[in-house]
Design brief:
The chain has 5 helices and 5 strands. By secondary structure, it is of the alpha+beta class. The chain folds into 2 domains: 76 residues, Beta-grasp domain (Ubiquitin-like (UB roll)), CATH 3.10.20; 72 residues, DNA polymerase, domain 1 (Orthogonal Bundle). Strand 3 and strand 4 form a beta hairpin. Helix 2 packs across helix 5.
């Protein structure tokens, strides 16, 4: 029998306490226990990037992280980007540039982009492509996604975030 335990998580600056089982992934806890459904799950094998979040400043695939190992780490999901009803420049640029269609991959794309721009506020197009290489999209063809990230980077450098 698997033993349940209480675990604490810091997600989007909020402390959560929930009961988890040892086999639960971080994606499961975010979605099912904490109700943060912006993080999508698709492949469950780390191949698509839909579940990308930022943990301790790095993009990670939450479907591959056991929740128990993420306790008390600083986790950011798509729900943590907008502040006081104002979209983050990445979110705004994805809308303005038409970088989303079905939207399923969008949260993972945006979170991987956030980690990139936090580390490198002035990336080249090639650096954007490399940072997003693990995030698959079946709808857009990636051109608009790359444009949106570069546009957001420019906005952020001008003081938009």
């Amino acid at each position: 029998m698997r033993k349940k335990q209480i675990a604490k998580f810091n997600v989007n600056g909020v402390e959560y306490e929930t009961i988890i089982e040892p086999q639960m992934t971080l994606a499961d806890v975010l979605r099912d226990n904490l109700g943060l459904t912006g993080t999508k799950t698709a492949c469950g094998t780390g191949d698509c990037g839909c579940c990308t979040i930022v943990m301790d400043g790095k993009p990670v695939l939450s479907c591959l992280i056991l929740a128990i190992t993420a306790r008390e780490k600083n986790i950011m999901t798509i729900e943590g980007l907008a502040k006081e009803g104002t979209l983050h420049p990445l979110q705004q640029s994805f809308i303005e540039r038409g970088a989303l269609q079905c939207g399923y991959c969008t949260p993972g794309q945006i979170m991987a982009s956030k980690a990139l721009l936090d580390e490198n506020p002035n990336p080249t197009e090639e650096e954007v492509k490399e940072a997003l290489a693990g995030n698959l999209c079946r709808c857009t063809g990636y051109v608009k996604i790359n444009e949106a990230v570069l546009d957001a980077a420019a906005k952020m450098r001008r003081g938009g975030e």
